[in-house]
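Our consortium's second objective concerns turning raw sequence data into structural hypotheses that experimental partners can test. To show how far this objective has progressed, the report includes one record in full. It was chosen at random from the queue rather than selected for favorable results. The single chain below, 141 residues long, was entered without modification.
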Amino acid sequence: MRILGLDYGEKRIGAAICDELGITAQGLPTIIRKTKKHDLEILGNLIKNYAVENIVVGYPLRLDGSEGIQCEKVKRFSTLLEKEFSLPVIKWPETLSTKEAEEIMINAGVGWKKRKKAVDKMAACIILQGYLDNMIRKAKL
């Protein structure tokens, strides 16, 4: 089963896809947001090309676990995706995924220009991998 992971943002949408076994997440090109129609067209192409069956969207809870303004935006985006593509959309907690992505790249010696271009893709990978790892743990129980 192929799952698409998304890190939703105001200017960009980070994207990642899992392998066919649902074990590992790989980054896809970051979507530079333009219009709703443009964004949905690109997402639709990814869904079709990878035969996506589920979508996981990062849900940015606050550190105390409460919902903030960005959570409402993600809810609206998730509802739009469900209606547009008739696929299940899972909102997955992603507090500090972007910060984690930046730290991973800093530790790997990636310069700030490359980090800026890749951080959304890396955050989407972290979100999707977290979801996949959780599903694998549940399957073992």
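The partners drew two points from this record. The radius of gyration is 14 Å. The domain at 2-140 is CATH 3.30.420.140 (Nucleotidyltransferase; domain 5). Both points have been shared with the crystallography group to help prioritize constructs.
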